[in-house]
Every structure is written in structure tokens, then in C-alpha cells.
UniProtKB/TrEMBL annotation:
Residues 216-470 are annotated as: Uroporphyrinogen-III C-methyltransferase. Residues 151-207 form the Sirohaem synthase dimerisation domain. Residues 218-429 form the Tetrapyrrole methylase domain. Residues 1-203 are annotated as: Precorrin-2 dehydrogenase / sirohydrochlorin ferrochelatase. The modification Phosphoserine is found at residue 128. NAD(+) binds at residues 22-23, 43-44. It comes from Parapusillimonas granuli. Pathway: Porphyrin-containing compound metabolism; siroheme biosynthesis; siroheme from sirohydrochlorin: step 1/1; Porphyrin-containing compound metabolism; siroheme biosynthesis; precorrin-2 from uroporphyrinogen III: step 1/1; Cofactor biosynthesis; adenosylcobalamin biosynthesis; sirohydrochlorin from precorrin-2: step 1/1; Cofactor biosynthesis; adenosylcobalamin biosynthesis; precorrin-2 from uroporphyrinogen III: step 1/1. The lineage of its organism: Bacteria, Pseudomonadati, Pseudomonadota, Betaproteobacteria, Burkholderiales. S-adenosyl-L-methionine binds at residues 225, 302-304, 307, 332-333, 384, 413. This is Siroheme synthase.
Length: 470
């Protein structure tokens, strides 16, 4: 090990910073957040440091460096732009056996400041011993995305209850089981849901119960349209922690690939000959069984779970069963497909509203509905319409939408095989047939679709009147 890592308690201890420019200011602010007593000095100081000095939060010497400044210091930081001066400060500090850091100069330093991920009281420090600071920074960014911001609150809670937990669970194995429950289960979930009182109550109840309760629960996660880059950080974290993943067929393999290696992945799509309600009952039963067995279940759905995803019904069921749950939104197909086709869903001149419409159950829909859908200056997004494009365009035209209204059909939105077919409503049915549009595909109708050929940037863009080459 090239460097020995330590975490220093700087509360009330003097740290001398030579330099008062922007780099020094950054160091000083982080020293202040650790409670250090900062003495800084340089002929010129940044407005920020002058302000801190006026507020009495640091001592600022506006003068050239003198060795006497090092008196009474525990640590020294040299942050001047002048290497000769930095080197002199480092030498004088070392003679006095003071640890010194010269910013961005590992050769002159006897200690280095790591990159940190701050979830106080939990802190992760990363160092490459000066060999590759860029790599250390990248690692920090990666780790930063792995841990939720409520982790610090959880660490603090665990710290506060440590003696009580030790007393209530004297046996080591049972204590470990309790900590697993505390860190992975409903207490952590309650903190993520910003319900600190509920978290404390759960902890208290569990502490006084003879057995540690189940840590099972369900996270309803929107997986987005397919490109794994469109997952949220919360979705990624849930996938990292899952024991069981119940996923729809619409969820892409690339997204499933990101989940914890040893999580069980179960496809819960509709079985042949099964009706939708039976599928839904089967899914409910799977969620219930695994959550009650103490598993962390991720219910993973394409797009967003609350947009044509029956997510509401699943939560109603979980609530009835008293199973804890969280919801992570996903990017719904209309938003993703529009973005990946270069179609702004609203536009100051062309569309003041957007409607997300299911192409199912429209046969028996009231005629009024079609009149409303056929109005101008709005964008329509039809989900589940791949097999009914002819019907949809005929209804819109019959109810007054012009045959010249631009449309775009986005097939396999955000995925490697994305195709965007665009043209005028009057030619939609014919074009969809010729180009053999397949599910999953979304139909957008409205003036904004005329922008697709100009703003497209991803995958294949096909004008509706283009001859099909077989
Ligand atoms: N909950 C999902 C929608 C489920 S309904 C969401 O929020 O996106 C399924 C329909 O969504 C499909 O028939 C199709 O119309 C649309 N869809 C989902 N993913 C798509 C994709 N990658 N490209 C195009 N359409 C998609």
C-alpha cells in the first residue's frame, strides 16, 4: 500500500492554508465543513474568502508567507500557484513534522486529500496515490450513483440504536440478521420514501419483537422504452439490490443485463390461452409469495408503470396485503419515442397539449371522444396501435382531422432497430402496410410530426411514400 488511509478528526484543530485563490477557497470550504479552525494567508484573497474572514469563520492573513504561520498547526495545505513557494512551505512543514499537502503535487506532499462520496456520517474516500486522479474521480462518480442520499440518515439511525440493538440481540448471528433487515428492508425503504417517523417506529417495533421481521417488499420500477441509458439512478439501485425480478416481455434484455447477477429473473408476460385478468392474478400472487418470503422484489415494467401499465392495480393489491412498496417512474414510450425521433411533443406554434391514448377499447368509445381527438393543435400518442393503424387514421379523418395532418410511427423506439415512418394521415394506412409496422410501435399524430425529417438524429427515418425495396 503506497499510502495509508486515515480519517482525521479536525474539530477545532488548526489547519494552515498557504494561498487564498479559488483552489485554496475550495479546500478551505471543505475543511470548514469538517469543523477545522482555518488560518489562511496570501497577499491577495478571493471575495469568498474575504467574506468568510469578515464573518469570523476563518483567520485571514493578507501578507506574504512567513514560517511563523505554521505555529500551532496540525496540518498544512499549500495551494499557491507558485511551485517554489509551495516547495518551501512543504520543506518547512516537514522539518516541523507536520503533514503537508501541496495541491495537485503528490511529489511535494506527505498526505493527499482523496476524492470523497459524502453520505455523512458514512464517507467513502478514494485515492490513486497521485498516479491517476482522473480515474479516482471517475470511480467517485460511479460510486456516487450507486448509493441513495438517504444512506447517511440510515447510517446515523443505525449508529443511534447500536447499543439498543446489541442489548436486544446479544447473539451475534441474530444481531447480524437484524442489521440485514435494518439496512435492506422496510426501514431503508421508509427513509427513501421520506418518512423518518415511520422508519423509527418500524425499528422500535422490530427491536422489541422476539423475531426479526421479514425484509421483503416490492419496488415497482419503470424500465423505460429499451435503451438502458434511460433508466433512472433509482431504477438501477433497485435492480442492484433485487432478489427477484418479475418483468414484462416488453422489458429489453439490455436492461435485464444490468440487474444483480444472482437475482432470479421471471418473465410474467401473458401465457398462450390466458386472459389478461388471469395474468394479472398470477403476477399478484408471485409478488405476494416472494415478498412474504422476505425477498426484495422488483416488479419491472416497460416505460412507466403508471401509463397503460396496470401499476395502479398492483399497488392496490400490495396495499391490501400490507406489503411495503416503492415506485420508481420510468420514461414512457411517448416521451422516449418522440425524443428519439426528433419530435417535440409540444410546440409554441403547433401543439398546446399532448394526449396519451390507448388504441385498445376504442371501437365502442363514444363518438364525442373521436371529435375531441380529431381537434387541431394537439399531439396524440396512441399506444398499442400497431395492429390498428388503418382504423385509427380512418376514425380521425372521419371526425374532421385533415388528411394532411403529419404523423409519425416509431417502431422499436430507442432500440438498435428503431424505425420512424413519417408522412400525412391520408397515406398512413397504406404506408404502414407496405412497411410492415410491427409491435412495439407508437403512433404520434399532430403538426409537430412534420419536424421529424428535419430534427431526426437516431436510427432509420423513412418517408411514407418511399417505395419498399424487398
Ligand atoms: N407502460 C408502457 C406502455 C405499455 S403499453 C409505457 O409507459 O411506455 C405497450 C405499448 O407501448 C406498445 O404497444 C407501444 O405502443 C408502446 N411502446 C412501448 N415501448 C415502445 C418502444 N420501445 N417503441 C415504440 N413503442 C413502444
Amino acid at each position: 500500500m503506497r499510502l495509508f488511509p486515515i480519517f482525521a478528526d479536525l474539530q477545532g484543530r488548526r489547519v494552515v492554508v498557504v494561498g487564498a485563490g479559488t483552489v485554496a477557497e475550495r479546500k478551505i470550504r471543505s475543511l470548514l465543513s469538517a469543523g477545522a479552525q482555518v488560518v489562511a494567508g496570501a497577499p491577495e484573497a478571493t471575495p469568498g474568502l474575504l467574506q468568510l474572514s469578515r464573518e469570523g469563520r476563518i483567520t485571514l492573513r493578507q501578507a506574504s508567507f512567513e514560517p511563523g504561520w505554521l505555529e500551532g498547526a496540525w496540518l498544512v495545505i499549500a495551494a499557491t500557484g507558485d511551485r517554489a513557494l509551495n516547495s518551501r512551505v512543504a520543506r518547512l512543514a516537514s522539518e516541523r513534522k507536520l503533514l503537508v499537502n501541496v495541491v495537485d503535487d503528490p511529489e511535494l506532499s506527505s498526505f493527499q486529500v482523496p476524492s470523497i462520496v459524502d453520505r455523512s456520517p458514512l464517507t467513502i474516500a478514494i485515492s490513486s496515490a497521485g498516479s491517476a486522479p482522473v480515474l479516482a474521480r471517475r470511480m467517485r462518480e460511479r460510486i456516487e450513483s450507486l448509493f441513495d442520499h438517504t444512506l447517511g440518515t440510515l447510517a446515523e439511525l443505525a449508529g443511534r440504536y447500536r447499543p439498543a440493538i446489541r442489548q436486544a440481540r446479544p447473539d451475534l448471528r441474530r444481531r447480524r440478521e437484524f442489521y440485514d433487515w435494518l439496512l435492506d428492508g422496510p426501514v431503508a425503504a421508509a427513509l427513501r420514501s421520506r418518512k423518518p417517523d415511520a422508519a423509527r417506529e418500524l425499528l422500535e417495533t422490530a427491536l422489541h419483537a422476539p423475531e426479526t421481521p421479514s425484509r421483503g417488499g416490492v419496488v415497482l420500477v419503470g424500465a423505460g422504452p429499451g435503451d438502458p441509458g434511460l433508466l433512472t439512478l433509482n431504477a438501477l439501485r433497485a435492480l442492484n439490490e433485487a432478489d427477484i425480478i418479475l418483468h414484462d416481455r416488453l422489458v429489453s434484455a439490455d436492461v435485464l443485463e444490468l440487474a444483480r447477477r444472482d437475482a432470479d429473473r421471471i418473465s410474467v408476460g401473458k401465457l398462450p390461452g390466458e386472459d389478461h385478468d388471469a395474468t394479472q392474478r398470477r403476477i399478484h400472487e408471485l409478488m405476494r409469495r416472494h415478498a412474504l418470503a422476505g425477498k426484495r422484489v422488483v416488479r419491472l415494467k416497460g416505460g412507466d408503470a403508471f401509463v397503460f401499465g396496470r401499476g395502479g392495480e398492483e399497488l392496490e393489491f400490495l396495499r391490501e396485503q400490507g406489503i411495503p412498496y416503492e415506485v420508481v417512474p420510468g420514461i414512457t414510450a411517448a416521451l422516449a419515442c418522440a425524443a428519439y425521433a426528433g419530435i417535440p411533443l409540444t410546440h409554441r406554434h403547433h401543439a398546446q397539449s399532448v394526449r396519451l391514448v390507448t388504441a385498445h377499447c376504442r371501437d365502442d368509445a363514444q363518438v364525442d371522444d373521436w371529435h375531441a381527438l380529431a381537434r387541431e393543435k394537439q399531439t396524440l400518442a396512441f399506444y398499442m396501435g400497431a395492429g390498428r393503424l388503418e382504423f385509427l387514421s380512418a376514425q380521425l379523418i372521419a371526425h374532421g382531422r385533415s388528411e394532411d395532418t403529419p404523423f409519425a410511427i416509431i417502431e422499436n423506439g430507442s432500440r438498435a432497430g428503431q424505425r420512424v415512418l413519417h408522412g400525412r394521415l391520408g397515406e398512413l394506412a397504406d404506408a404502414a402496410r407496405r412497411h410492415a409496422v410491427k409491435s412495439p410501435a407508437i403512433l404520434l399524430v399532430g403538426e409537430v410530426c412534420a419536424l421529424a425529417p428535419q430534427l431526426e438524429w437516431f436510427g432509420a427515418s423513412i418517408p411514407a411514400d418511399e417505395a419498399v425495396v424487398c
